[in-house]
Amino acid sequence: MNSLWVLIWWVVIVVIGYWVYARWAAKHVFEVDPNRATPAKMYMDGVDFMPANKNVLYGFQLNSIAGAAPIIGPIVALQWGWLPTLLWLGLGVFFIGWLQDFSSAMVSIRNDGDTFGALGYKLISPRARKILLTFVYFYLLLIACAFGHVITKGISHNAALPFPLLVVIAVAFLVGHMIYKARVNIIATTILAIVAIFVAIWLGTVWNMSFSYNTILICVLIFGYFSSILPVWRFIQPYNYSSVYVVYFGIIAGVIGIIIGHKPMTLPAFTGWSVKVGPLWPILFVTVACGAISGWHSLVSSTATSRQLENELDVRPVTAGAMFAEFTISIIAVIVCATAFSSKADYLANLKNPVGIFVGGLGGAITSIGLPISYAKALAGMMIIILALTIVNLVFRFMKVATAELLGDAIGIAKNPHLATIVALAITFLLVKTGTWLYIWVLFGGANQLMASFALLLITLFLVQKSKNYKIAIYPMFFMYATTVCALFYTAVFKLIPGGLAGKKVFGNFFAAAVAILLIILALILAYDGWKAFRKFKAGVAEASAEAEKAPA
Q1: What would the pLDDT profile of 287-331 be if each residue is shown by its tens digit?
Q2: Residues sharing a CB contact under 8 Å with residue 299, sequence separation 6 or more, in sequence order
Q3: Structure confidence by residue, pLDDT tens digits, 498-526
Q4: Residue 474 pLDDT grade (very low, low, confident, very high; cuts 50, 70, 90)
Q5: Which fold would CATH assign to domain 4-542?
Q6: Crossing angle, helix 126-156 and helix 437-465, to 10 degrees?
Q7: What is the rounded CA–CA span in Å between residue 553 and residue 543?
Q8: Which of 97, 283, 351, 490 has the smallest number of CB atoms closer than 10 Å to its CB?
Q9: Measured between alpha carbons, how far is 136 from 158 in angstroms, rounded to an integer?
Q10: Residue 93: other Cβ atoms inside 10 A
Q11: Which tens digit of pLDDT belongs to each residue from 16-39?
Q12: CB of 266 within 8 A of CB of 339?
């Protein structure tokens, strides 16, 4: 099949999903109100609550949610064939993905910028708050491990990347200073940032810099430390905003290159029900994470973006718009991979380095617009590493917040941002060095999608409490919950534990299996508490409705 048909699938999903379904939900379910004051304006503190221009915030949201998962997940999922991967990407983002991102931000905004810990306390129970925060911490740990490895592996295998990455980091500090301190015009600041970054990418192809895996891993963790403790305006927001233009260019150039090249899909459409990592259901649905739906997005939307939105009308373009853009990245990843290999055996031989697969595939597509292959590959490499580093930008910050909320009242020192961050960095380093990456990735995917089901649970309870149409969230929640609990159980019992018993990275496998089982237990308890809260809210709504009918006209 020609790859152009895949682009038609992409267009249909984006047009109907964003301009029809998302617009309807924003207007008729959440009733967005441009006149309602947002938490960013009410509680502006210059650290977390900070009103931002919607264009800046869109770049922040896209970079923050994307990471490398919308690229790596679909590439790994092609083991089952490109057809099931494309079907889940399209249907997942249409019915669940954008809805979770948008609704997570709206629920937080309507609750004064509360995080999921506080929302769990309000909507479910005090116990639910502790369970949710515990889950979030271990879930974030898996994210840190998965992306820490991806970044380190990608940079250590591409000597053209270190120099431009250093420039990107320097530019982020400069942009933050220019926008928020020097008050320089944002257009001039943006042009300066774009020129500096794209020139640096070219210089990286000339000035190659090679470092060992361990050196890069330590540098990545140091990067995570400063991202965690600095104010959001100082580094995270300007990093996401300035570097996102590489992502924009990669998406546009990739789509144009695909249209010009219109290559056939040479990998099989469907290879079979079961592959090395497991059966199509439930494993494919957690292997393909961010491009369809991702619990990580709900954390970004509710913990970071909701505290920066100036107007409720901005929520749909910022959150749903970024989600459909991320879906686009996944579509590009599927096409460039499915058209780059002549056989499944050739593809599997390269699967140990999915970053390399994407760099080669997208780089080849970008050459269709006239760029030299060396620059095109460097650009593709920068795109995926920038996205992955954005996750590191936020994950340790979120772990710091979760530590303070979970342990701060009992152990005062847990509120120390430096200590909480250093502990998270140390655990991440240990697990990255001792874990089995492929199963860690599947385990991250399972925890990630389980986080999405928890987000949908909170969204459902909020909508029930407000007497709104909760069915748009509850059915996706049931599907995600059942799928991800089964995926975590399968990975732990049939993959991680046998691998540990066979002596293959024993500590990492058993630790990851223990985390998976813990997450399942927490999920079962939280589901029970959520069900009780749902029944309570439903009963309250029914009682209020009955009293309203009895009241005199």
Answers
A1: 887 889 998 899 889 988 999 999 999 999 999 999 999 999 899
A2: 104, 116, 136, 398, 451
A3: 877 777 667 767 877 888 888 899 889 98
A4: very high
A5: Hydantoin permease (1.10.4160)
A6: 140
A7: 18
A8: 351
A9: 33
A10: 29
A11: 999 999 999 999 999 999 999 999
A12: yes
Q: Under DSSP, is residue 213 helix (H, G, I), strand (E, B) or coil?
A: helix
Compute the distance between CA of residue 36 and CA of residue 312 in angstroms, rounded to an integer: 7
pLDDT digits (tens, 9 = 90+) for 48-79: 788 888 888 888 888 788 777 888 889 889 99
CB of 17 closer than 8 Å to CB of 330? no
Q: What is the DSSP letter of 305?
A: G
Cα separation of 149 and 143, whole Å? 10
Please give the helix or strand (H or E) that residue 254 lies within, else none.
helix 236-261
Report the amino acid identity of residue 494: F
pTM of the shown model? 0.85
Sorted by where each begins, the domain ranges of the chain are: 4-542
* Distance between first and last Cα of the chain: 64
**For residue 64, what are its two tokens?**
């923050």
Alpha-carbon span 373 to 31, nearest angstrom: 49
Distance CA 381, CA 301 (A): 26
Question: Which tokens go with 66?
Answer: 């994307």
Residue 78 DSSP one-character state: G
DSSP state string for 142-179 = HHHHHHHHHHHHHHHT-TTSHHHHHHHHHHHHHHHHHH
Q: What is the C-alpha to C-alpha distance for residues 6 and 26, in angstroms, rounded to an integer?
A: 28
CA distance 204 to 223: 20
Residue 194 identity (one-letter amino acid): I
- Amino acid present at 449: Q
The answer to whether 512 and 431 have CB atoms below 8 angstroms apart is yes
Residue 109 CB contacts under 8 Å (≥ 6 apart), including other chains: 38, 39, 306, 309, 312, 315
Q: Using CA atoms, how far apart are residues 144 and 518, in angstroms rounded to an integer?
A: 18
The rounded distance, in Å, linking the Cα atoms of 258 and 366 is 8
